[in-house]
Amino acid sequence: MMIDSVPPGATVVAAVGSGLMAGLFFAFSAAVMPGLRRLRPEVGAAAMQAINRAILNPVFGVVFGGTPLLCLLLAVAAPFSARTGAGWIVAGAVLHVVGSFVLTMVANVPLNNRLDAADPDSPAGAAVWADYLVRWTAWNHVRTALCTVATAALALAV
């Protein structure tokens, strides 16, 4: 008896993790950032600094870090799977890793670090915030789209 290299449950877990990240990114694009944009710059920047600190917690860490690891394993194993849908698994896994983890580390985290170092009450802090709103939000829209498509691909594989 041959054991399949991709257990269906692993694909379901990856799809759920990807969906959670897509939903989180969507919430920021649809509500959080537009809401913060409506505040005075020093208030919006300070609120985002607090959000960026609060999100670094174990629950977020498991989903944010665990889903890409699972996706990497699935992307490597899927081509050797006897199951149909291996192409969807690879596509979804790669889209998730790039959309959630890579873009976050390359684009959003450096912007978060720059904002964190800024004094929200200073003119320089207001300039950092204005730049942050445009750039961080644009990259977040990309993360939202890629993770949404990744979730759909992984769901199709199930």
UniProtKB/TrEMBL annotation:
Protein name per its UniProtKB record: DUF1772 domain-containing protein
Q: Which Pfam families match?
A: Anthrone_oxy
Q: Where are the transmembrane segments?
A: 12-33, 54-80, 86-107
The domain of life for this entry's organism is Bacteria
Which InterPro entries does this one have? Anthrone_oxy (IPR013901)
Name the UniProt key words of this record, in alphabetical order.
Membrane, Transmembrane, Transmembrane helix
